[in-house]
């Protein structure tokens, strides 16, 4: 047994060395730096920060490099590191209405206060491979556009406020007696889950899973007819209340993407027909994630809105229990670990059952022969 253990250790150490070599790749090419990943793979960095629950572009870029581009593995690495960090306190809720906007669109109104801002997006590209990117060197044209020149310094009112003025959309206001939201990064998920808990879970959830479930809601697996009320991306201030000062002070800024989906609602005997909302928020430029999150959020509100539950996308426990990519990846990949004892037990069981099955067939054949002889 000791020899087997030592042999296993050597094999694992050799695997680590091979992993380092595979990650580095062909040494005739320059090594990919963390700064390059951070600045040029910003969308991947945004996803890792969002689902890793850590806003740190450098650490997210480092995790992507270490994981050789496997974003789920990078998210796992970032979450694991997060558990080692001390907690100094909680920041104040960010005010996305005061966002310094770089991109802001609405699919519900053509003319909105502040105007539409297309910003940097793939929405209007032709999705054709750009072979000019194969040429190495600096793109002076792209570099000449400064971020400050592409962002609005003025706060823009929310698009849904146009409906809010007429009372055509549900009022979402925090009540003074509302309980403090839980913290899924420190507390296990439990049911029933409040909307605040659900939104935390969806923010940390796998983008691919949410995208598929959001797609399902649009195909009829929920009572949902969504409109993109507003999608905005930009910078928001983060404030924290310091006991020494007795007031909140700004400690930094972060990039976020926010999505408000507008949905039809037939109303009830107490509530007139109105529009309802689904909400999504993610770190960095993460429009697809925020939109999918908003679609799923609205579907999960079916019970509170008195709608008929008839789809997995409306099942809170199903959705929240299976959306986390770290848990899902771990549960699937643990099948690669040794299961020798379990399999041998299963193998022996199948052999015994097959032996009983063969003996039974033999008895049945014997009984059938006896009956045929008696009949003859």
From TrEMBL:
Heme as UniProt keyword: no
Source species, domain of life: Bacteria
Region (Disordered): 355-376
GO BP annotations listed: organic phosphonate metabolic process
Record's compositionally biased regions (Basic and acidic residues): 358-376
GO molecular function, one term: lyase activity
KW Lyase (keyword) present: yes
Keywords for this protein: Lyase
InterPro entries in the cross-refs: PhnI (IPR008773)
Protein name: Carbon-phosphorus lyase complex subunit PhnI
